[in-house]
Amino acid sequence: MPMTKEDNDLVTRVENGAPLGEMLRQHYWLPAIPSSKLEAGGRPYRVRLLGRNYAAFRAGNGTAGVIDEACPHRKTSMLLARSEEDGLRCIYHGWKINVKGFLDEAPNHTGDQQQFCKHVRTNQYSVVERGGIVWVWLGKGQNGAVEPPKFPELPFVDLPEEQRAVTSVEVPTNWLQAVEASMDSSHVGVLHESTTKLTAGSGNERVLMTKALAPRLEFEERPYGFRYAAIRDVDEHRFYARINNFVMPWYGLICAPYEKGPAMVFFSTPVDDVTHRAWFVNFNEHAPLGPTIISTAPDVWNSPPVPTGGAENLWGQNRDLMKRGHASGFPQHLATEDFAMFLGQGPIADRTDEQLCSADGAVLRVRAAILKSVREFMAGKPPTLATSPALDYRQARSVGGVLPSGSDWRVLAEQA
Q1: What is the mean predicted confidence (pLDDT) over 328-351?
Q2: pLDDT digit string (tens) for 348-367?
Q3: How far is 46 from 78, CA to CA, in rounded Å?
Q4: Which domains does the chain have, with CATH numbers?
């Protein structure tokens, strides 16, 4: 059933006090920047989240911080600031803000400078580094909260560096288009047919998705969101099940293509209403990751590649390559194929006139989970999927495998 315009706005808009943006600010940790991008004593980077600009940096002592980009004094950009041992010093008048967001010095103020600094209003944001990412909680000082929300203890966050890799890139569309794609199993065998075959090695079960394009979907609600099995018959005696997890508000945990292989977590965070930042974490809980498309990315802050151009040049699609057998005409990366689809949907997809089918069950559940949470927040209640006592992010495990016909796919989940 298509969404109403009001509901479509509720699940997409994050700027200017939109309920979704305020809920995310209050109840979730947001990935800000890959840890490897920040150099001790180096330059700050702009991080735009939920329609507002921040400066992420690593002070000389190695501590990461996220502060408002605008200096509290005369509002020039702290991206231009000088990095010091424990903070950033604005080069306009010398005001210094430490990694926790407090004003330490205002050298152009006469009188009791220490007392003056205590009374200057600044926003202080909680920051942690885990899993190769600098995370920020923007709720403190914004909505009267005192304690940060539960951290997303996903399978990769405590792995050693050699077992995970992180990249991120900004994409000029709304965030939800990307989150929906991470839970859309039926597009993989169509859009990603050529990419899957090119990257699949011997024994890679993922190739089975290119042979059975209409999976049967079975779902289980979980305290963090839901998990579901996409089931495809291999032959009359066996079926292939892929169990993936949706973790509120934007995490898609995708199973490894073969036993004890490298898995993926996709998450797409709202930059503003019409822009999102796509995150890719490739990880292996069992062994060093080794060289992968993610671990060998040339720029962890700008990868995988986004299609170039617009509708006038089909977003850079290579039609000649399609004539030679490539399914999509976007050979750069699996994610580039996805990005092209998001761009084709427009800045914010219009869900009021969709004609959905049986394969869209997981997409509908993603929307329902977000709508439920936003409505709870609007009613003055803490969102259940962010605050449930049963919430345990460590239980989100995605796995796939071939089973005998008549088996229960949950056997795979229990093994995970």
Answers
A1: 96
A2: 999 999 999 988 999 999 99
A3: 9
A4: 29-137 (2.102.10.10), 161-415 (3.90.380.10)
